[in-house]
Amino acid sequence: MPAGQGWTLPFLELDGPSQMALDRWLLEQSVTSGTKSPVLRFYGWKGPWLSLGRHQVATPPHWQALADAGVIKLVRRPSGGGAVLHSGGLTYALIWPGAPRQRREAYRQTSTWLIDSFQSLGHTLEPGRSAATARLQNCFAGASAADLVDREPHNSEAHKRIGSAQYWLHGHLLQHGEIVLQPPADLWETLFDSTPPAPLEALTQQELITALTQTLQNRWPEVHWHGQTLGDDAWQQVKSASGNYRLA
Description:
Helix content: 25-40%
Order of helices and strands: EEHEEHEEEHEEEEHHEH
Radius of gyration: 17 Å
Number of strands: 12
Largest sheet: 9 strands, mixed
Strand content: 25-35%
Number of helices: 6
Shape: globular
Structural class: alpha/beta
Oligomer: single chain
């Protein structure tokens, strides 16, 4: 577990390249500063964005057609995995210096945090049971142990609720993921030819942010958490790096 100070950033709604550049910048700052301070932030997206994993090359032609028509915008993630639709959900990012070097253990510990947070709000999540694969074009088409699913009442079918991905840099972990809350059904079906997870009508974004923040702080009592905002120099660096994640 980390010790010392931790930082929380305010909720930000930005374009996709800026969000990805900011996640990567925070990870780089963690490495270069040499501190063990975790960073937690939550964010939204300006308009519907489809993020592609860093190694995802082959994509359906209709995704680019939708982007050309202005229906969606495309962005490259620093992390791996399949495509994620960011619309009507909440994205989290955790910078974790000194995380367990075994990816499965890091996922297990972060999954416990997410599960406990949802449990405090009356929602039950469980790890997925599918084998992990890098070949899925749609991140939410399968749910490995790194992902979390829920079940609709009186229905045995599991629906993936949270898809997470990791990026490591010199032993420091960036884990970020999408929490599906109010998915746009028509756009989801157009993109993925599948039905989206059921909306969580009674759960507000702010309730979820509060629960996730409080639960992580309870799990890491050794960390003294402080709010933090970025200065102009930091934003300039993020802006300069955002082009690395922009897709035409």
